[in-house]
Amino acid sequence: MAVPANPAIEEEHEGPTHHPTAPSHEFFDLSTTVDPSYIISLIRKLLPSDSASAHGVVSDVPNKGGAPCASICNDQQFESSKNKSENMDVDVSRESSRTGGEYKDNGGGFEHSGASIGEDAWEENGCVLWDLAASKTHAELMVENLILEVLLANLVDCKSMRVNEISIGIIGNLACHEVLMKHIVSTKGLIEMIVDKLFLDDPQCLCETSRLLTLGLQSGESIAWAEALRSEHVLCQILWIAENTLNLQLLEKIAGLILAILESQQKVVEDLLPPMMKLGLTSILINLLTFEISKLTSDRMPERYSILDLILRAIEGLSVIDDHSQEICSNKELFHLVCDLVKFTDKVEVGNCCVTAAVLIANILSDVADRASEISQDWSLLGGLLDIFPFASDDLEARNAVWTVLARILVRIHGTEMNSSSLCHFVSVLVRRIDLIEDELLNKQSVDYSPGSTADTRNTSLMRIISIVNQWTAVREEAESNGNAEFLVSETDVKKLLDICHKFSK
Is the distance from CB of 386 to CB of 379 less than 8 angstroms? Predict the structure, then answer.
């Protein structure tokens, strides 16, 4: 894969102090008290200095593709939009009061009339709009007053990374409101301009661009966004960023973008996934997983856990897609990686990751059944699978996956062929987790015993446990009668384990 000349995105540094993120859903419909005229004045102050006439008109601003941008934001249009919005239930608010309703000259050359302002003042105004765009009411008012056209005009040949970041960040918050997504898509040249920002060398701009593209692929307008991404040049850049960035925030955002592609509607997957696979998506994801697991076992950096989760979910998503699952399921390195993750002893902070790993193991074993023989004597893995149940208590599919893996392993364990030491290890793993097993069996018991169901795989596992524990009991009794070394497993615990398995088996 070709590597861009400037590797600046590899630099890991802190972002700006004012960097709003995607708003939480619970904040979307909060009642607002911001005067519409204040928002309109902020939009006017974002007009590019080289595009505004004495009357504040921006017209026929070309984008990089040469297509003209519609005439935007003259005084008459702003006044019309203001009158149109006067009936909205809004008043002067805390946001307005923090600037006193007026902007003072901060040395950046700001003029209240809408003429040219300096970058510092533009940044201040843009950040206020970035925050306000989290509110649906404010966001709709902004779009009515042509903020998308204003931002597009700013993005055209913009040299300031901060202006790029804020402009895309505002659009990203607007995109959080599904009702406004059609406006974003229908603004001529805007999606293409946003995609073009993937080739910037600024991590914060790339973060906001990746976030916005992810929102687009998760929306009802995903096909329009996918069409803008389908160029091999663009897909190559996405994968290059994922493979090369050292910035954790950017890595998380780009991994989220890849996951959004895999989880999007069928047409998007059909259009984008084949070329991404040809560009090495599988090997890139596995390399990223290898690195994150190595970090997990050494540095224990909580800020990396979400990245690990996204990578695992992307790989798990690939493992169930026709025509591409075999490349995932046949990879031995991947299989051992996810098994190692399941065996990770401290699961409290990475429980979701371990759940995904167990689901991925189940998917692999369904395609390559012989792999189960490789892990049938791995008692650490057996214990790790049982340890996952509390983290999957509300996820029936994940619980089913764990039982499926257990069943595939246990049917390959033959108690009569195991020596006393192996039998003792097996029973020890189980009795140490009696409470976990009992809690799982009590959790939302299923009456569906159809092949492949949770109850079916659970029943198979329980019957195999009963058989192997009975074999161990026979070996133990024989050893005791011969005066051999004692077994360090409580007879009471063994009896309790058998009682539980008999109680819940069919």
Answer: no
